[in-house]
Design goal:
About 50% of the residues lie in helices and about 20% in strands. With about 450 residues, it is of the alpha/beta class. The strands form 4 sheets. The protein has a 5-stranded mixed β-barrel with strand order 1-2-3-5-4. Strand 11 (about 260), helix 8 (about 270-275) and strand 12 (about 280) form a beta-alpha-beta unit. The termini are far apart.
Length: about 450
């Protein structure tokens, strides 16, 4: 090595810096990269930018970048206003950058701007992927850009009264919605239960999905909701991004209670709008939709009432005429029946008079015969009864104890009591035996019982 040919490191870094300045000084490029890391520190915002291979896993290029915070305010705010997102890790961005070299910190990119339109293109691609992924899920179909979902197939109740509201407590749209419901000219009463959530930002979709889950848990406990309303006030197009989230849209598409949306955009339609049961543009229109729905039912009932009243009136008129005709026919018929009945009664009266005379004559003849036949018949009956009494008296005499004793029978007594069974007498008992011509007093030696 020749003397004086070596360079100090600082001199070598200066050489690199001079070379880079000659090539890159005052020049900028639009660079497409993915943010791997972001670090907000002091007056700077530091990024680690990478490019990945086609498989999305291997890093094929890496460089650090930074931007002064005061310079980033305008560019980043414009980006966030348009896209609704903050430049964060994992996001592919198109940045306007220049080359910067520092002896201590090395080579880096100096960021000057970030293109929101590129991000909108990425968001549109993500939206299309979300729509395609939803269409592949069971029970969900997409035809000619129109979704068919389980929630769309649900029939709204004929009257919507109990409403679950997913909204922000501070959203003007929430107050517009409740005010429109409360002040409706038909004096319909509604029971509104708010489920508050943030409506924009990184976690908005997850919080709204969580509130849907809370509503479902309430229904499992027995609470009834006729509809779920998702509402928000107006805002930029980027504020709709949470409503394009796959998980939130999928939860709405399969939710078992009809979902009505009114998220405050007259031109744009979110994916949640596409899969929900009913869609309106603003919270006020959502309230008017519910009022009109209930009014349609009331008008239908009023129409049916008027139709029923008309038909009842026609039927009553028809029956009044029929009753008048029937009354006239009945009156004439009654007169004819009365006249016929009077004639018939008169004929019966005449027949009864003739028949009564015949019956009285016949009865008189029979009474005469009975009077003639009664004395002989009475005598024969009396004689027959006297003969029967004689026979009975003779039988009684034959059954008298004296006559029984005369025929050789005996009567046994024990202490003035008649003995009719051997069981009444025991050995050594004294008994009396009555005979036809006297009495025997005996002592029992033995008693035999019949078996």
């Amino acid at each position: 090595m020749q003397p004086g040919s070596q360079l100090r490191l600082s001199e070598f870094c200066s050489l690199i810096s001079d070379t880079l300045k000659k090539t890159f000084s005052d020049r900028t490029w639009w660079v497409l990269a993915e943010i791997k890391e972001r670090n907000d520190k002091g007056e700077h915002i530091y990024f680690e930018l990478v490019e990945k291979s086609e498989n999305g896993k291997d890093i094929i290029a890496r460089m650090n970048g930074n931007v002064w915070r005061r310079e980033a305010v305008a560019a980043f705010r414009n980006f966030e206003d348009i896209t609704g997102k903050r430049p964060e890790r994992g996001m592919q961005v198109l940045v306007k950058a220049g080359v910067n070299y520092h002896p201590l910190y090395g080579l880096s990119l100096q960021l000057f701007d970030i293109d929101p339109q590129h991000m909108l293109g990425q968001l549109e691609m993500q939206r299309r992927k979300t729509i395609s992924l939803l269409a592949s899920k069971p029970g969900i179909r997409l035809a000619d850009g129109v979704f068919s979902t389980p929630n769309k197939k649900l029939q709204l109740p004929v009257v919507i009264r109990r409403i679950a509201i997913i909204t922000s407590a501070s959203a003007a749209g929430y107050h517009d919605f409740t005010h429109t419901l409360t002040e409706n000219i038909f004096r319909y009463k509604f029971e509104c239960t708010p489920f508050f959530s943030i409506l924009q930002g990184e976690n908005a979709a997850e919080q709204m999905k969580l509130q849907l889950l809370n509503i479902y848990h309430e229904t499992q406990k027995g609470k009834t909701f006729d509809a779920v309303v998702m509402i928000r006030g107006g805002g930029s197009q980027s504020d709709l991004l949470p409503f394009d989230d796959f998980n939130l849209a999928h939860a709405v598409a399969r939710f078992p209670v009809p979902v009505i949306t009114g998220i405050g955009h007259l031109k744009d339609e979110s994916i949640v709008d596409m899969v929900a049961n009913s869609t309106t543009k603003t919270p006020t229109q959502a309230a008017e939709f519910i009022i009109d729905h209930n009014r349609a039912f009331e008008e239908e009932i009023e129409g049916l009432r008027e139709l029923l009243s008309l038909r009842v009136h026609n039927q009553l008129t028809k029956h009044h005429r029929r009753l008048d005709h029937t009354g006239a026919v009945l009156n004439n018929g009654t007169l004819q029946l009365l006249h016929t009945a009077e004639n018939r009664i008169q004929r019966h009266r005449e027949k009864i008079g003739t028949a009564s005379l015949r019956l009285l004559s016949s009865a008189s003849q029979r009474m005469g015969e009975l009077q003639r036949n009664f004395p002989p018949l009475t005598r024969r009956l009396i004689e027959k009864q006297i003969h029967a009494m004689d026979l009975f008296s003779e039988r009684v005499k034959n059954l008298h104890p004296e006559n029984i004793l005369k025929r050789g029978f005996a009567i046994v007594k024990k202490k003035e009591a008649y003995v009719v069974s051997a069981k009444q007498v025991k050995k050594e008992d004294a008994v009396e035996i009555l005979l036809r011509d006297g009495m025997l007093e005996v002592k029992v030696d033995n008693v035999k019982h019949e078996t």
